[in-house]
Amino acid sequence: MHTSRFIAGDPAVVIARVAQRHWHALADDRVIGRGEASPRPDGRTFLSIDAWHRPVFDRLADAMLADLPSPLYTVVDEVDRELTAGWQRAGFTTRRREWDYVVPTGPRVAGLAVPPDVTIGPADEGPLRALDRVIRAEVEASVGWQEMPAEVRPRAAGDTIVDPALYTVAAEAGRYVGLIRVVQATRLPRIGLIAVRAGHRRRGIARALLAHALGALHESGIPAATAEVNEANPAATALFGGIGGARRMSSALELVFHGE
């Protein structure tokens, strides 16, 4: 059954910015819609609106866009066509599509062996931070860090490692060359990031890091993990698509507003 997001009617509303990042739509002193602007650690601002009337959604969007500097972003479930259409009416366009994968943790995926001369294990904070800086610089110089999975955990300004215990690293000749981050963000753990230094790619290090993480989760009694994969990243889609039992559960669109 299809259920419309918005109900009929065009209530008379007043839009008020009630805090630095919050807006309310008011009708007869009642809140009938809310908007929020959420800054993410990568510096981008994402918008969300909760409103039952289409005109209320549109007026909240217009007010927020007028008050905030662009570019601005939002994320919608791709099947929610009405919500997508609402942001498109406001001037948002599709920036990228992300697939949400559910990945089984066991039995361990065949073929994800550790390459020779590479060891995988827990991270020491100092070398981990150095590796993180190098990888971020390499990615920023190529596709840009904004093409990597979204970082949503709060952290201090300038600190890109929230908790070293969340990371596992791959080392070669005593130097860290790759990392994986697993976060317990929802009911299932989330594989938030897999990254390998540019000169060490295409050797199976990312696959080995993933196998190690899945094996550790399996030993802890966790049956599955989730991962968000940018459709435009062929290496990531091949990595997760090649895992037996992994399946796409949903897709989300990241939309962007660039202003006039």
Number of helices: 5
Low-confidence stretches: 1-5
Q: Which architecture of the largest domain per CATH?
A: 3-Layer(aba) Sandwich
| The first-level CATH class name of the largest domain | Alpha Beta
How big is the Rg? Answer: 21 Å
The percentage helix is 10-25%
Number of domains: 2
What letter string, H or E per element, gives the SSE order?
EEEEHEHEEHEEEHEHE
Largest sheet, order of strands side by side?
Answer: 5-12-6-11-10-9-8-7
- CATH topology assignment of the largest domain: Aminopeptidase
CATH superfamily of the largest domain: Gcn5-related N-acetyltransferase (GNAT)
- The first-to-last residue Cα distance is 38 Å
SS strand fraction: 35-45%
Q: Can you tell me the overall shape?
A: elongated
Largest sheet: 8 strands, mixed
Pfam family, one: Acetyltransf_1
GO molecular function, one term: acyltransferase activity, transferring groups other than amino-acyl groups
Protein name: Acetyltransferase (GNAT) family protein
Keywords: Transferase
Describe this structure in words.
Mean pLDDT is 85; it is low at 1-5. The protein has two domains: 14-91, Aminopeptidase (3-Layer(aba) Sandwich), CATH 3.40.630; 101-253, Aminopeptidase, CATH 3.40.630. The protein is elongated and about 70 Å long. The longest helix is centred in the middle third of the chain and has 17 residues, at 125-141. It has helices at 54-67, 81-89, 125-141, 205-219, 234-241, and strands at residues 14-19, 22-27, 30-39, 45-51, 72-77, 93-104, 118-122, 167-172, 175-183, 190-196, 224-230, 247-257. It contains five helices and twelve strands. Strands 5-12-6-11-10-9-8-7 form an eight-stranded mixed sheet, with helices on both faces. A four-stranded antiparallel sheet has the order 1-2-3-4, covered by helices on one side. The two termini are 38 Å apart. It is of the alpha+beta class and 260 residues long.
